Give the backbone structure.
Amino acid sequence: MERRGFLRAAVVGAAAAAFGGASWHGALAAGAQPGPSPYGDLLPADANGVMLPRGFTSRVIGRAGQKVAGTSYVWPGAPDAGACFRDGSGWIYVANSELPKSQGLLGGVSAIKFRADGSIADAYSVLHGTDTNCAGGATPWNTWLSCEEVPRGQVYETDPWGRKNAVVRPAMGTFMHEACAVDPERKVVYMTEDQFDGGFYRFIPTSWPNLSEGRVEVLCAPDDLTSGPVTWKPVPDPFGDPVETRYQVPGMKKFVGGEGCFYANGTCWFTTALDSRVWTYDARNSTLGLVYNGAEQAQQPPVLYGVDNITRAGSGDLYVAEDGGNMEMCIITPKGVVAPFCRLIGQHANSEVTGPTFSPDGTRLYFSSQKGLTGELTDGMTFEVKGPFRR
């Protein structure tokens, strides 16, 4: 969003020490630093305007205002975060639409169904009429949590197959939701908040995995903490009326522009766009750390700037999209190397990279240029990249 560029310029990052989860412990003592990509340098852009390493190819699977190939479904504008779900021998890709009601537009969630060979079998809507659906998260029980990024935003639980109606989950809190990540070991859902002084929350369902009831807690620690133990405290009124959730708990740690969120193997990775940081929450030890701190990079502008949505490959590599910057998606390896994986060129300069997610077999990566070639919210292009991903 346009406000982020201004706010980032006003933020000065503090010094950082970093560690990650599972395979990351001890590997990032100085934070991820620029280095050679495990895939090599980017080649000149292909016909779709995508720069990729050798051995990788791209195709456009959705363009706003146009029918998805082989279907009658028109792909929506402002495609954002997404996820993939196994469907027999094929899979389903779902993506949010960050269209705002304030501009007379309606957001929601769309789906594309793929056959085993990667051909498109169908496309359809699984949620429509909501407001500014930005990020979200997949659940282990095969639903997609779609989040509204507005001050009174809600979380909607949707069915990627489109057979069941989407259900709003007000118990998960009313605030400027960004992303969700499910921790099945502790039976909680982590949530980010896209505010300059936002919180990092977790929702604890009363009866797992039913998300209709439960309590919301917020991470508490000194605001200058970048590495160390943290605690959680309950949010008295998750509905935020009249006091917004981030102002209810003394000692809540403030994060500047919470964005993407992804859980695996005891660790939740999440990003903050306004200071270009990638954080880790070690759920087993209840500690916080930094994987990447853009403000502390010797190279300015840094390789990875304006961090946004995040995902993780089976290899442990993190893929982080840029909101702005030079329209790249970067990889952060478990050895602490950050490098470009792909870049969109040309008229994409007024867009942002959104929604990286892998197909269930790890051979295809999906992401979008949210505003496409025109820079308008009603535009947007969604890509599939295929190649020898590390798994």
